[in-house]
Amino acid sequence: MSRRFTRGEILERLRKVIAEKKPVIAAGSSAGIIAKCAELGGADLIMVYSSGQSRIKGFQTTLVERSNEVTLSMFQEIDDVVQDTPIIGGVDTAELLVGRDIPEVVRKFTNTGFSGVINFPTFGFFDDENYRKDREEKGIGFSREIELIRVARDMDVFTMAYVFFPADARAMAEAGVDCMVPHTGGTAGGLVGFDSLASPLEDAAASVQRIIEATREVNPDIICLAHGGTISTPEDTRYLYEHTDALGFVGASSIERIPVEQAVMGIVEEFKSIPMKD
What we know:
The structure is a single chain. This protein is of the alpha/beta class. It has one domain: TIM Barrel (Alpha-Beta Barrel), CATH 3.20.20.70. Helices cover 47% and strands 12% of the residues. It has eleven helices and eight strands. It has an eight-stranded parallel β-sheet, sandwiched between helices. 45% of the residues are buried.
């Protein structure tokens, strides 16, 4: 069973990894077996998202209703098998009901045992000005996600932020985020990846670097990772590290879906290939 880590403890751990010239790896884990193996493999952070349940069920990453309730319900299974790795929970700010302000929700996550929060599900991938304005007028815009990070930071809770555009990165940096995660879109690859939407690896890396540079304009001490799109394999991250200043990778489908697909198909094919005696 894990323990809840303070913000300072997590940052100290991550900075030690970086000082050792190793990438920070955050592993999406929506089932105990995934979290257990991710920790044994050396994951620095265990990420828990409600949408991960769709991946474990064999579907493409899909948003779910009552996201925060689902994410909170997933904690115990993960915590039962994680020994010494911070567990980070995805918070959906768009579904916060009247009477449940952001500080209350952050406390709910930390009281459950999560050591940090990240803005997921996120609607930051929309760049249409009218759509964003409409969401803001309804009180569920990206500014709520920024407020989540600001509030959590004020509460001294470790924070991570998914961002798709440099301007949003600057806003998250000003809010005091600890770890910026440039997001390049739904992960490609495997049986149900977002292949048709993924941009070339070169373009994804360029997008990551632009977001990192925008982040550093505000605070060069923020830890910048990367996630999504065509960055889905270890070799892809090799290219990422060679062409950007990213210090690590956040994997969801890349860790809890695609490897499972490959391993199960492979081992069943092996079992089937063994001949029976005459």
